[in-house]
Predict the 3D structure of the following.
Amino acid sequence: MMEPIKSRRFWKDFDWLLLAAAVLLSVISLVEIYSSTMAQPTENFFIRQLAWVIVGISALFIVAAIDYHLIAEHIPWLYVLAIGVLLYTLALGHTVAGSKSWIGLGPVAFQPSELIKMVVVVALARYFSELRSRRYMTFMQIAKGCMIAGVPIGLIALQPDLGTALTYLPAIAVGLFVRGVRPRVLASLVLGFVLVLPVSWLVLKPYQKERILTFLDPERDPLGKGYQVTQSKIAIGSGGLLGKGVFNGSQNQLGFLPTRHTDFIFSVVGEELGFAGVIGTLGLLAFIIFRSIYNAVTARDNLGLFIVMGVVGIYFFHLVVNVGMVIGFMPTTGIPLPFLSYGGSSVLTAFIALGLIESVRRCRYVN
Amino acid sequence: MLQREELELLRWRISFIGYVIVAALLVLAFGFWNTQIVQVGYYQERAEDNRVREVPLVAPRGRIYDREHRIIADNRPSYNIILLRENSPHTLEQTAAMLSSGISMTKEEVMERISRAVKRREPKFRPVILKEDVSVADIAYVKAHKYELPEISVEFQPRRRYLEGSLAAHALGYVGEVTESELMTPEFVNFKSGDQVGKTGLEREYNTILAGKDGFKRVIVNSFGREMGQLEEEPYVAGNDLVTTIDLDLQRAAEETIGEYSGAVIALDPRTGEVLAMVSRPDFDPNLFATRISVTDWNNLINDPRKPMQNRAIQSRFPPGSVFKIFMAAAGLEEGTLNPLKTVYCPGHATFYGHTFGCHKKGGHGTVNLHDAIVNSCNVFFYNVGNDLQIGRIAQYANMMGLGRKTGIDLPNEDSGLIPSEAWKQRVLKAKWYLGETISVAIGQGYVSVTLMQTAWAMGGLTTGGRLKQPHFVNPDHLKKLGLPSFEVLEEEYPISQSNVDLISTAMWGVVNEDGTGSRAKIEGFDVAGKTGTAQVVGKQSGLKGEQYEDNAWFVGYAPHRNPEIVVAAFLENGGHGGVTAAPVAHAIMETYYKKKIGRFDAKLNTIAAR
């Protein structure tokens, strides 16, 4: 079933629009990363991000060239490998910002919890698509699905990187919803999640509690945790309709924006490119999401459908949490915005995710 | 694999996810629309507040010069530690805790400074001064911690410096931070909280001229508060220099010779009204006020029973004693109740209205005429002069000649003194005037009290033929030339015959030059004239002894005897006999004046020009 990458068919079925949207987002990202890190030229954020984008696009083509059935076929040992890597990270990882979530791969540091998302997505997709045909999943089936996602989530939560662990949840949630669970079960799952929240409050670290409290009342400590969100809103709001222009955002250039090239990159977009830039960027992200859903619906089989919907779930979650955070609708979490935030693991994973979608699309007419 | 009949359900679920995504995106878009379109003004303002900091540029106060353009007061550079509450990453308590030890203050002291600003509801953008006139070590500490404490910085502020310390302190006054109540008055309408303004003396009187106009610069700061560039600058306008009529050489001579006495000295030019020197003792160092005065220093000054803050030259009234006889003589001569040939026998005492009044010379002066009576300061002679005039005419003449009313000198809070009259006693004491009281008034005792300034002014007016020139420290023509708000020197002229002036003046020459009571004021070559006064603090009969009951010593002199150029009035509290203690003070000033006039003054020894 492998379609040679150089064949005419490959290039014809390739979703160029999807790639174009991702590249456009990368251009916006690179420009704003350059703009927000001009004060630290020695750190080479721009060059490093550019390198990761090139690596990411290459990875996209490679993944796109592979039949996703082949990946699904090899997913059991990939999954085991992923669990191994997470265990290794937990044991020997670097600690960044209080979480042991990084490992060194030769010269580059890598956050395996990002890339492993794709392994979990494919594993879940294979699991859901291979279930015996019944209208609703049984309790055991649900539990098994939750286990597949739960083991890596648990390991990541132990790092402890609760934010990243949370980003795995939409993969299982979307999978369960699309595969079908009894409304009763769905309701109790939602209810259960809501009930778990107060319990999880007890195990949260003080800084995490602080973040949530600050989210609920940003003026609680305007110069502490609320500072980031306040400054972010000032940056975005002062951008107005058309923005202050690239390199001209005072909040950005004068350092009032926190972690502006990573988590708060969208504030820079808001300040320098204005409402127009925000809507344009959100539009590109929305285009990728809906184009992906279209590819899911037209997928040849349910494996493809579940892969794409899993990816959509994860990245939509990223988008809502990150963009919601910069505008003050969501608590402060360290969740990056796909294609825009600085970070190799994040960029590479986003392009690989697109590669998976391309692979699904490419195979739709193959019989 | 799913059955195909479930395809519709699957489609529906995916559509549902799509709708959820659309809804979420719309909510986000609404958030941006609300922030970037609806509230854009608010956020642009806040971004501007973040970015722009207004740095005050404090204008230096104008310098104060003496009449020969020698500096008396100027400014020195100093630095304050200030807190910018806006955009501070710390709570006020955190800031105080982190900063206090580094600048050798307690946390409570820092908090007290801050809470004062909070209580006054000062706007947050206005810096709070935490410590004034800080040391190099304090500045170093702040600079070294600018990343930990971006809300703290140092501010340049020129500070007042009085080069000769307490010299002429009462005339110059001092500066201090403007108070809330002062800010309510029209005088300080152009000032703002925290400004240094003149509090007393010339600093206060000419505050609007001396005070400059602060400028500011608007700078771009980064999130650490570091200046990244400048937007605009409005430079300060320095205050105008003030050239006074003070002659430092005379001032210094007065300061030195008054010694440890409490009292005051004034030298003025009766032809113009220019004040050449003014001393009041005890004094204070106005430099103490240039930075925030310490509580201890302030309490010491305020609670000192000797009242060092009081300007005894213009704000204190004393019985003039025998000095008053001069004005009695002028009144009697003008009224015709007295003539130069009239004689009175002085047996050492005299009885009027059933009371016996003594003369200071127990054995009496014998038969005296007006000239002798002035030269030897005979009380009995002047009891008669007073009795002949009666209180109504005494009050009328004394007032006309400048006593018992304000001279209009360009210093704040001048006292008016008091010349009693029947009407005054009825109004204030609700009692009838006793004729016997007139006898005490005749020799400058009883209810009569004058300021030293009045005495010098009135003496100058009398000896220049009845011309009273408003005393002043600043030449109004100087101000006019500089285009500054100025004033006119008020001039009064009362009728008095030149022959009467000559008679009295000749007698006063005798006081100094004919072995009279004021012979210690004599200067070879410079015809000094004058009158001594020895005013009782308590009645002789009381029998009280002790330094605080010693008589107050007066000497009011002028020179030269014809066409006087300088009047000197000296008053020493508990100084004893005026001729013994006060006359030498006047002598020192007039001698300095004379030596300068004839070019014999040794400038090297006695001037700050060589500084």
